Every structure is written in structure tokens, then in C-alpha cells.
Amino acid sequence: MAVEEVFARAIAAERAAHGWEQKDLAQATGLSPSIIARIETAKRSVSLREAMRIAEALDVTIDHLLRRAEPEDRSRFGLRHL
């Protein structure tokens, strides 16, 4: 799985853990709901600035989102120690 897919799944999981719909995350970040949907399905890459806005809206760090990756994905991307 590509890092974009791993990050996309983590964003979707964290959003769901907050009880938010995509439109709620879109409103909190200032991004459009369609952009959030495309990011969460890995159909669009997320920029560092967007990742920061998403993490801030979810009250987590980018590191936290990466930690949500499956163990085999963390290992593959050199994130073994997260």
C-alpha cells in the first residue's frame, strides 16, 4: 500500500473516531468536502499544508496520523519505531 493510501485511511479513521462526517472535517479545515473525500480515498495527494490543517482540525499531530498505520505499513515506510 502506498503512503498516500496509508495516510488516507488514517485520516478517515481519525475523523470517524471524532464522530465527524467528511463535511464536518471540510468545514473545520476550510477544504471542500470533495477534496476531503478525494484525500480519504487516496485519489488526491495531500500537501503538507493540508495535512497540517487536517491534523489540527482533528486535534492530533501528523505523527499521530502516521502511527495509525497498520504495523506492516509502518515497517515498509521506515516508521517502525513510531
From TrEMBL:
Q: Which GO terms describe its cellular component?
A: cytosol
Q: Which PROSITE patterns match?
A: HTH_CROC1
Q: Which Gene3D superfamilies match?
A: lambda repressor-like DNA-binding domains (1.10.260.40)
InterPro entries named in the record: Cro/C1-type_HTH, Lambda_DNA-bd_dom_sf, TransReg_Diox_bact_type
Listed SMART domains: HTH_XRE
Any GO molecular function: DNA-binding transcription factor activity
Q: Does the keyword Ligase apply?
A: no
Q: Where is the HTH cro/C1-type domain?
A: 11-65
Q: Which Pfam families match?
A: HTH_3 (PF01381)
Q: Keywords for this entry?
A: DNA-binding
Query: CDD domains given for it?
Result: HTH_XRE (cd00093)
Superkingdom per UniProt: Bacteria
Q: Does the record carry Ribosomal protein as a key word?
A: no
Give the protein name, as stated in the record.
Helix-turn-helix transcriptional regulator
Organism listed in the record: Kineosporia babensis
Q: What is the lineage of its organism?
A: Bacteria, Bacillati, Actinomycetota, Actinomycetes, Kineosporiales
